[in-house]
Amino acid sequence: MADLSEIEGIEGIKESGDASNSEEFINIDKDSISSEELLCKAAESLLPNKNLSLDEQPELTLLALCVWGEARGECFEGKCAVASVVLNRYEQQSWFGKTITKVLLRKNQFSCFNKNDPNRRKMMSIKNTRDWRECVRAAISVYFGLTEDPTGGATHYCHVKSNPSWSRKLTKMATIDDHKFYS
User: Fold this and answer.
1) Which residues of 78-113 are buried (b: 16+ CB within 10 A; e: fewer)?
2) Helix H or strand E segment including 172
3) What DSSP line would sit under 86-101, residue for residue?
């Protein structure tokens, strides 16, 4: 497990959104609590603010929501793989989007954010459960570079049972749990 207490700037992980959650997390003494307690605080702080639209949520909240919506049933490596695809797209600074928020919310790119996807409604009422904390841990680990990209630089993924037309034009980089990753 990545030791979240070693992340520089962890106390400022959420600078917008619900001020009460944000201030509580920013003001904790990260040296006096365990990594598990810090993860629990981070996960609480990164819960989506129901008073904000998706595009107004902090980017780390959106990244954790994407991991939850796309890979919550996957192993930790699978969760990190989905988060890595997002960051790989962001790093290209291309049509995928120039910000992490734009990459995540680009139409029809991450199904959990599609208006008719059942995960979208569920995401806005998510609770600080073990599943959520594991998704937050993966998002933080990838976002802060605490784990290597298990996809080898992939910018696309799909379910192992699907065969989208775009996959024939790309190189398969990895298969992790129920997802195939391409670049």
Assistant:
1) bbbbbbbbbbbbbeeeeebbeebbebbbeeebbebb
2) strand 172-176
3) HHHHHHHTSTT-SSHH
Q: What is the CA radius of gyration of the chain?
A: 16
How would you write the pLDDT of the chain (183 residues) with one tens digit per residue?
A: 444 444 444 444 433 333 334 344 444 454 555 688 888 999 999 999 999 999 999 999 999 999 999 999 999 999 999 999 999 999 999 999 999 999 999 999 999 999 999 988 899 899 999 999 999 999 999 999 999 999 999 999 999 999 999 999 999 999 999 999 999
Nearest Cα to Cα of residue 24 among 47, 54, 44: 44
Distance CA 163, CA 9 (A): 41
Asked if 45 and 25 touch (Cβ cutoff 8 Å), the reply is yes
Residue 159 backbone zone (phi > 0: left; psi -120 to 50: alpha; other: beta):
beta
Residue whose C-alpha is closest to residue 67's, from 84, 51, 50: 84
Q: Tell me how far apart the alpha carbons of residues 92 and 155 are, in angstroms, rounded to a whole number.
A: 9
CA 53 to chain centre: 17
137 neighbors 149 (Cβ within 8 angstroms): no
